[in-house]
Specification:
Blueprint lengths: L4 E7 L3 H13 L2 E7 L3 H9 L5 E2 L3 H5 L4 E4 L6 H8 L8 E4 L5 H7 L8 E2 L2 E3 L20 E4 L7 H13 L3 E4 L2 H28 L1 H10 L5 H7 L4 H10 L1 H24 L2 H20 L16
Parallel strand pairs: 1-2, 1-4, 2-3, 4-5, 5-6, 8-9
Antiparallel strand pairs: 7-8
The structure holds NADP nicotinamide-adenine-dinucleotide phosphate.
The site of NADP nicotinamide-adenine-dinucleotide phosphate has 26 residues, from helix 1 and strand 7.
Length: 305
């Protein structure tokens, strides 16, 4: 694989950035990788494990001379980071991000964009419940989708280059409008996370069960909820605060369906329940057929630790 960017700067050195660093090395697409994280502790860890070629002590120094800058911080921090690095961005550079929400990030970052810098937001649909610089691995993006969200007037060559970069990291790419992205993700990721958080919270409230049976017999269903509910609290707080409308819309629909199922149980309407579960089972099959999960009992997650 040949180099796609001579210098790539990663701002934020958590799960996504560290996975990108490993995947970039695997593919040989970056000449030099620089990195910055807010805390000295994270920067020290990154240096210790050799995550980047250079870990800098300021965001501005990190992006100076970079051809691609990727913001890998929580969604709520994107605007402040963009403001900080803007004066140091090289003319002709591409600025991108990996935020789980797109409209709010674009609104927060775009006003700081200097003339001559190409802003191409993106979102790799891949993750685990782990965070920090040690949690990344090169295969995270393999066979996953990375959604690219070009802006009005985006330079097509810059967009195509970023798509090629994500493909080299193992992902499939698609282009999507920011609002549509936020609605799709509210359905596929944001609302399910909130439901998992709620379910684990409910089980925890029933303390007497939590201490024994819920943990011991958690293989069926609940164990997966606890895995999802272990995801980073800052990241997920920011997701909900910044994808408010779409998440509330989906949760409204969810609540209506839940009440309908609750009523079917109360009145003993087995036909309703059976028809509903038959429809949802078909959706699971189509996800497997699309290659987005395996039907292995561990959902193919064992390698993600
Ligand atoms: P993470 O492992 O928690 O890492 C976050 C990084 O951002 C850390 O290096 C942290 O630095 C830094 N940071 C936090 N607040 C900052 C601030 N105010 N200024 C500068 N740096 C700051 O997070 P992640 O899972 O990689 O997520 C990063 C982004 O990717 C988020 O926008 C998230 O929405 C998106 N994303 C996540 C997933 C997922 O499943 N995890 C999937 C796709 C996209 P310190 O360590 O020094 O605190």
């Amino acid at each position: 694989m040949s180099r796609i960017y001579e210098r790539v700067a990663l701002i934020g050195l958590g799960l996504i950035a560290s996975s990108m660093a490993h995947a970039m090395r695997r593919a040989g697409v970056a000449g030099e990788i620089t990195g910055f994280a807010r805390s000295a502790e994270t920067r020290d860890v990154a240096r210790e494990i050799g995550l980047c070629d250079r870990v800098c002590d300021s965001a501005a120094e990190t992006v100076s001379g970079a051809d691609l800058v990727v913001l890998c911080v929580p969604v709520g921090a994107m605007g402040a980071v963009a403001a900080e690095i803007a004066p140091a961005l090289k003319p002709g550079a591409t600025l991108s991000d990996v935020g789980s929400v797109k409209r709010a990030v674009i609104d927060a970052v775009a006003p700081h964009l200097p003339e001559g810098v190409h802003f191409v937001p993106a979102h790799p649909l891949a993750g685990t419940e782990h965070s920090g610089p040690r949690s990344g691995f090169a295969e995270l993006f393999d066979n996953r989708w990375c959604l690219i969200v070009p802006q009005e007037g985006s330079d097509r060559a810059a967009v195509a280059r970023l798509e090629g970069f994500w493909q080299a990291l193992g992902a499939h790419t698609d282009e999507m409008d920011a609002d549509h992205h936020d609605l799709v993700l509210a359905v596929t990721s944001h609302a399910p996370h909130l439901i998992a958080y709620t379910m684990v919270g409910v089980a925890d409230d029933l303390r007497r069960v939590t201490d024994s049976e819920v943990i011991k017999y958690s293989a069926a269903g609940f164990r997966d909820f606890t895995r999802i509910a272990a995801s980073d609290p800052t990241m997920w707080r920011d997701v909900f605060l910044n994808n408010k409308e779409a998440t509330l819309e989906i949760l409204g629909r969810f609540t209506e369906e839940l009440f309908a199922l609750q009523r079917a149980i109360r009145i003993g309407d087995g036909d309703h329940l059976h028809a509903y579960f038959t429809r949802t089972r078909a959706i699971r099959r189509s996800i497997i057929e699309a290659g987005q999960d395996t039907d292995a009992p561990d959902f193919g997650r064992a390698r993600q630790g």
